[in-house]
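batch_manifest entry 22 of 60
target: Glucose-6-phosphate isomerase
source organism: Helianthus annuus
requested by: lab member K.T.
priority: normal
notes from requester: please return tokens only, no post-processing; we will run our own comparison against the previous entry in this batch. if the run fails, retry once and flag.
--- input ---
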Amino acid sequence: PYGFSVIEKFLTGARSIDQHFHSAPFESNIPVLLGLLSVWNVSFLGYPARAILPYTQALEKLAPHIQQVSMESNGKGVSIDGVRLPFEAGEIDFGEPGTNGQHIFYQLIHQGRVIPCDFIGIVKSQQPVYLKDEVVNNHDELMSNFFAQPDALAYGKTPEQLQSENVAPHLTFTGNRPSLSLLLPSLDAYRIGQLLAIYEHRI
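--- output ---
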């Protein structure tokens, strides 16, 4: 049910980020820091794409939404005066919920092109499922993946490490690949308002 009280919480969450963006110093301003990371990755390091990877099916439409907002807003190759920019600007945004993406394009992210990643996790599950004889619930397994992926992107595995684990050497991945993690306490209207406002101000 989406009534006034839910929308009010959503708007209150968005407003909290509006106020943070307006008043926080740059060194601790979340949207500013994320925006600067995008400029650094695209314009200085030359990484043209960004993957948005929420580890919850409830945010399956987040990546397409941000794709439209970001690529429409920042998809220009000229300055406000119509002069061609001497550098690349704007990102190619794409994404899927985490475990879907792991079976679609994570191989490329780990072993192919360098694609900066935004990992989005939720501390408290909306609906944890406990199966008989399972030690952990589905959300705990999901969050294990959420924490493992940025770690693997950062550190990689050498052929020697893989050999010691009896894993084929062609599965080597270099590490030193950029990512960031946003961890929300829960996924309610207030937090969704915050999340969308963070991305809006980042853009």
